[in-house]
Amino acid sequence: MWCASLIVCVSALVTCASTAGILYPRESESREVKSLDGMWNFRLSLPDSLVGFKERWYMKDLSKTGPVIQMPVPSSYNDVMVDKNIRDHVGLVWYDKSFFAPESWRQQGYRVCLRFGSVNYAAQVWVNTHLVLNHEIGHLPFQRDITANLKFGRLNRITVAVDNVLLATTVPQGSLQNISTNTGPKTIQTYTFDFFNYAGIHRSVFLYTTPIVYIDDVDVTTNFTEDGVGIINYKVQYGGSLSSGETLNCSITVLNNENVREKFTVITNDEEGLSGIIKIENAKLWWPYLMHEEPGYMYTLEIRLSTTWNVDDIYRLPVGIRTIKWTNTAFLINNKPAYLRGFGRHEDSDIRGKGMDYALVTRDYDLIKWIGANSYRTSHYPYAEEIMDFADRHGIMIVDECPSVDTDNFSDKLLKKHTTSLAELIKRDKNRPSVIMWSIANEPRSDHKDADSYFKYVVGFVKSKDKTRPVTAALNKWYSIDRAVKYTHLPFGELRCKNNANTHFLSICTFVYRSVAIFVKTLDGSRPITAAIAVQLDTDQLGQHLDIIGFNRYNGWYSLPGHTEIIKSRIEDEAAKWHAKHNKPVFMTEYGADSYAGLHVSPSFVWSEEYQVELMSEHFKAFDILRTKNFFIGEMIWNFADFKTEQSVTRVGGNKKGVFTRQREPKSSAHHLRKRYWALANHLDGAQVPCTVQSYVIDSYGQNNVEL
Is 234 helix (H, G, I), strand (E, B) or coil? Predict the structure, then answer.
């Protein structure tokens, strides 16, 4: 199948640009940025996935290959049209767009780059019939210098082939299944993760220019002294070639958040000034939301690269000064313990799917702050750079997760792609103050064979790229079986555990209990035999390698739905066991229940808004106990908002665990969570609680006299 071959082809080239920087395009005195967002020509690769390559669609306007439709970029293509064939398409689709490259770019000797923020899942890109780019793994940017491929002062064309197929060696993983239909055989995509496999050009497409010798990448780490001096360690990498005898110089200016030059000193490490230490007197630190009266404070490094004969290059990089530390019991921002109040989330909304949308992002961050949260996890893939910019500016802490979800069938090929996704993520987000942890996986099959060596390598790889942030993951492989079993006949039923965990151990237990029951029966066969069985199995092999343990658990929902009375003790017990085993900080990365907005049942019943609130409260009780034990560092409910999933009889139009609807309207649970998060902010960080958190009921200071 060609779609699989495209992934194989892209895989061979996916790391070809890994040594280059991936700075976000920013206009400056030396740089121009041209957006290619808008309406693109689009068509499915039909009747088969190979047809576009057989007929060489990249050699001409897509409209000349057959019928096309207009598709907005950025967006997922799945939900824009009312066409089931587009929504459920498996395999290749094609885009193209024409644009002008200004003649002035050639005259000024500019270098021109083409940059995609994200294409899901794999892409090949042609410019004026020339193949210029290959990339695999969605949710991450890629770019290429296309100066030699452009026609300056004339019309140019970009053609993109996009493949959405997921296989055992993609990140995330999936598989293809052949089914029989009324019109013949059909291939469908299957996967285990619980969100819709949206595809397309999800984020902005840019052309940007630089001088011939240019700023290629910047590395920044920060610190501060006890007397209030902010420290920025910087390293600038440049691209392009210097002529014989040409010299280079790099200078730095620091601007405050009002773009006013800050008082600072620079100590350079080399003659060119490409690396050094910046010191700022009375520096303002980057603080999380509600931990300080001025959260998210950002400086700007104005970097100027000068050469003897070429045009200066200027790039401005936002920087926040803060420190991260962690112990075996705590996580600290600027030497102060931080307690995470947040969410798991998704890039997901009506019509646009995972397409980047500024109005939606603005609304989401307003709701995050309204509810009193200070953090979220980018479950289960990296989010758009524009979304991350909001986090930096608003002081929202980010657990930055790569696209590895439900990872299984460990192989060298998968490992290479997994680490490639992390390398690209770290390169993209390494300078962001909002990014406080790297998450290497969500609910991996960490109980399976080879998980130990696989994840030991992954964690070591991340630490080789960045030692300044802790490594975490969202784990769920701690099994617990609690059941009372009544045996009246022999042989009686076997003990079983979900996901086939440690079946050998369970079979031994079954044999022992059966033997005991047989013996008891020989003594008294007139009475039934009852046994209360409690089995706990720790099968996870990943937690030992992490710095901080995150865990997902759905007590009262997937486990014993309707029984909220089990939640408090189970959460307390599991969190304590994770800490006891690994001696590391622990936080809960997922818990929750679906609720259908507007469904009210009294007393509470599953799927009702009342049940979602009740389940949350039982978790809150456990969290408050755990907070007193000094190793529990946060709580993240699943999910911020309802989101789309694949079609399933267990999903009513998608996953409904959001405290907000997919349209970003609050359920009862949002108001309940708001009270919780603001109370925590007040108790832990001294934040002033808004008067709107609690609606007026009665004047508690007045006197109510009733005369009879």
Answer: strand
CA dist 564 and 560 (Å) reads 8
Q: Mention every residue, 6+ apart, whose C-beta is less than 8 A from residue 384.
A: 117, 118, 202, 203, 347, 356, 361
Side-chain-side CA neighbours of 234 within 13 Å: the count stands at 32
Give the residue numbers annotated as catalytic, written as ranges.
443
With vertex at residue 168, the alpha carbon angle to CA 162 and CA 173, rounded to the nearest 5 degrees, is 65
CA 161 to centroid of chain Cα atoms: 25
Q: Report the DSSP beta bridge partners of residue 306.
A: 249
Pairing mode, strands 175-181 and 92-100: unpaired
Report d(CA 556, CA 559) in Å as an integer. Answer: 5
Cβ–Cβ < 8 Å for 163, 201: no
Are 316 and 279 a contacting pair, CB within 8 Å?
A: no
Q: Using DSSP, state whether 610 is helix, strand or coil.
A: helix
* 388: enclosing H helix or E strand: helix 385-394
DSSP string, 412-444: HHHHHHHHHHHHHHHHHHTT-TTEEEEEEEES-
Give the long-range contacts of residues 408-412, CB within 8 A, separation 24 or more. Answer: 408/173, 408/192, 408/444, 408/445, 408/448, 409/168, 409/173, 410/448, 410/449, 410/450, 410/451, 410/454, 411/168, 411/169
Which pTM value belongs to this model?
0.90
Q: Which residue in this structure is represented by tokens 């730095």?
A: 252
Number of H helices and E strands in the chain, helices first, is 12, 34
- 699 secondary structure, DSSP code: -
- pLDDT the model gives residue 533: 46
Query: 3-state secondary structure string, 461-493?
Result: HHHHHCCCCCEEEEECCEEEEEEEEEECCCCCC
Q: For residue range 11-31, what is the model confidence (pLDDT) as tens digits?
A: 444 333 457 899 999 999 999
Q: Residue 632, SS3?
A: strand
